[in-house]
Design brief:
The protein has about 650 residues and is of the alpha/beta class. The protein is about 50% helix and about 15% strand.
Length: about 650
């Protein structure tokens, strides 16, 4: 068992090294995590923004590993930003503190999915249009070719320097360029068959992870490890899941598949050179058959029974099976043939899964301008997978600033497969260093009518413009739809012309965010990608506007199916799925306002149902403990006072 005093000493030393101050919540969290490592009991710990939760779990982790060199702890995050912060700042600081106190150095590594690393086989034996760029003068190359040239040169430099060719360290590039130097998981030849297996970057990353005590990975790779019987991660003794509020969505994404005519046709064409004419023709025809089946189907969830589109799916399955058989027997050096066979196998596996129409899957037809119609398949629930493959054998810590929904851990616990009553976990809220009641106001616009599907109402637009005027810009607008964000931007540009209004879609989001930060009086309007992860401390963000409660779309097939499943099991599907989803996003969105001890401002929710509906109390209990008002004059006056105080400073 780890000495709790050592955990505290490591935490204190690490915080001092980073120039910070220990906070009671961070100290409490470290003690709770240390207890979990000792007892094996799962822990859900909510640590509000500003607590310093990374060191709150790293200090006990390195203390545990310093005392037990044979042990391994895995940390799984949702975002690349946190993964980078851990690898480059927080972990080295905690490890250095432990080394100073114990004389033991804890080894650590970062492990990502295969497509995050360069594939040397693609770089050195690749072919196609991008190959032409390699023989051109780099000064004359442009667009995709220039990016591929730069990536390949960088990859060779990484190989020479014993690096890992991790995408995060690569020169600037587009996804299209990266696809020319990486390989999808299913098309990887494997270290034994690949001519570059001995110097493979992915294999090296795995070797380093196996040789390390502390391994940082992501939710998606954790899901893949669970789905494939522990083949993606090295064996470990304990697991910390940071940003745990995103775990279900990330695991669902990793376990979901898509099937469309363009995808089938592309794979069929790759296979043609090695297939008998009839087999190749049937594979190509299967793409047309799938297109016809999708055209006849209705957009939305595939009903039970024998829907017509399933006949098209079975045609794809059968054609792909024949193609896989026809491509068998390729020699190891026939790289393109072997990769084509792997692509055909993937088409077969997806079609086979969809054709089963399992009660544990949700299958639906979607339609978009970019992809046209396609079939989608996602697990009805990931709770069983997480319960049986993640929580069964290891102590797990789940942490986030937003784990309590409706004031309780029950909803999050149930969604990841834990007992909602708390029988198999401890739930701890270590609070926040922020005094939300004195730092922020929650204004709910009860004088407005509830939002409708017809778009944002004129009186709501007027409310936004008045609040933005009072805040002197400095507004983050979080909208339920792109149409609403654009309408609000147009209105505010006309009504408050002396303020810069940025709107998602005007340019790439990183550029807009940078402009928002650079111009303190600017405002930024956008949709879901702004609700989570945006960190803009200081007076740049004085007002957060939320136009409506972010319930799932009523036509979202997966959310509909999950809600129905809870109801059929005797639960409250609306509260378990729709309200929990909305509560989580509301908490994340409102959390954009207060990021430091000095931040002040207003969160304005223009949806009166937050107060008037029966579920309103559940949603409000999910939010930070702001002082609340329904009086618009109070909100406007508060914003004006903040502006006056800032101008006098």
């Amino acid at each position: 068992m780890t000495d709790p005093d050592l955990t505290g000493q490591i935490l204190a030393a690490a915080v001092e090294e980073l120039g910070g101050q220990q906070r009671p919540g961070q100290v409490e969290m470290a003690a709770e995590v240390s207890t979990t490592f000792a007892t094996g009991e799962h822990l859900l710990v909510q640590a509000g923004t500003g607590t310093g939760k990374s060191l709150g779990y790293l200090a006990p982790a390195v203390a545990e590993l310093a005392g037990n060199p044979q042990a391994r702890i895995v940390i799984a995050t949702a975002t690349l930003a946190l993964q980078s912060q851990l690898a480059n700042k927080d972990i080295p600081t905690a490890v250095a503190a432990a080394q100073q106190l114990t004389g033991t150095t804890v080894s650590h590594a970062v492990l990502k999915g295969r497509s995050n690393y360069v594939c040397l086989q693609r770089v050195r034996d690749g072919s196609g249009l991008e190959q032409d760029a390699l023989v051109a003068d780099p000064s004359e190359a442009s667009g995709l070719g220039a990016e591929v040239v730069a990536l390949r040169r960088w990859a060779e430099e990484e190989a020479e320097a014993d690096g890992l060719a991790d995408r995060d360290d690569a020169p600037d590039h587009t996804p299209a360029a990266w696809s020319q130097v990486s390989v999808p998981v299913r098309e990887c030849l494997g270290a034994q068959k690949c001519p570059f297996g001995e110097v493979c970057f992915v294999e090296e990353s795995r070797r380093r992870a196996r040789a390390s005590q502390l391994v940082v990975t992501n939710h998606a790779l954790l899901a893949i490890d669970a789905m494939h019987g522990g083949t993606a991660l090295p064996e470990y003794d304990a697991l910390v899941i940071d940003e745990a509020h995103e775990l279900v969505a990330r695991v669902t994404g990793a376990a979901s598949v898509e099937l469309g005519p363009v995808q089938v046709e592309r794979v069929a064409k790759r296979c043609l050179p090695w297939l008998a004419d009839q087999t190749g023709l049937e594979f190509l025809d299967a793409a047309d058959t799938l297109q016809e089946g999708l055209d006849e189907a209705e957009v939305g969830r595939i009903p039970g029974g024998e829907p017509a589109v399933l006949a098209a799916v079975r045609s794809v399955r059968d054609a792909a099976r024949q193609a896989v058989t026809g491509l068998a027997g390729g020699a190891a050096e026939e790289v393109e043939r072997n990769q084509a066979q792997a692509a055909a196998q993937e088409i077969f596996d997806i079609a086979e899964r969809m054709a089963k129409l399992s009660e544990f899957d949700v299958i639906w037809v979607s339609e978009s301008e970019r992809f046209g119609r396609q079939l989608n398949c996602a697990p009805l629930s990931v709770a069983g997978l997480l319960r049986d493959r993640v929580f069964a054998d290891h102590a797990v810590v789940l942490t986030s600033a937003t784990l309590k929904l409706g004031g309780e851990f029950r909803a999050i616990a149930a969604s990841v497969g834990l007992d909602a009553t708390g029988a198999d976990y401890r739930g701890v809220d270590v609070g926040s260093p922020f005094d939300y009641r004195s730092q922020g106001i929650l204004y709910v616009a009860t004088r407005l009518a509830p939002p409708t599907r017809e778009g944002i109402a004129p009186d709501a637009l007027a409310e936004i413009a008045e609040l933005l005027w009072a805040a002197e810009g400095r507004t983050l607008g979080l909208f339920a739809s792109q149409r609403a964000a654009e309408a609000a931007a147009r209105y505010c540009r006309a009504e408050v012309p002396d303020r810069l209004i940025l709107c998602q879609g005007d340019a790439h989001l990183p550029k807009l965010t940078a402009q928002f930060v650079a111009d303190p009086e600017a405002s930024l309007f956008g949709t879901l990608s702004l609700w989570q992860g945006l960190d803009v401390p200081g007076d740049t963000c004085r007002l957060v506007v939320i136009d409506k409660i972010p319930f799932p779309r009523p036509d979202d097939p997966l959310m509909q199916a999950r809600q129905q499943a809870v109801t059929q099991a005797g639960g409250n599907g609306f509260m378990a799925v729709a309200a929990s989803h909305a509560g989580l996003l509301l908490a994340q969105g409102a959390g954009r306002l207060i990021r430091t001890l000095d931040d002040r401002g207003v969160v304005a929710v223009l949806d009166p149902r937050l107060v008037t509906a029966r579920y309103g109390s559940f949603l409000r209990a999910s939010l930070p403990d702001f002082w609340m008002t329904t009086d618009p004059e109070v909100a406007v006056a508060a914003l004006r006072r903040l502006g006056a105080a800032a101008n006098d400073a």
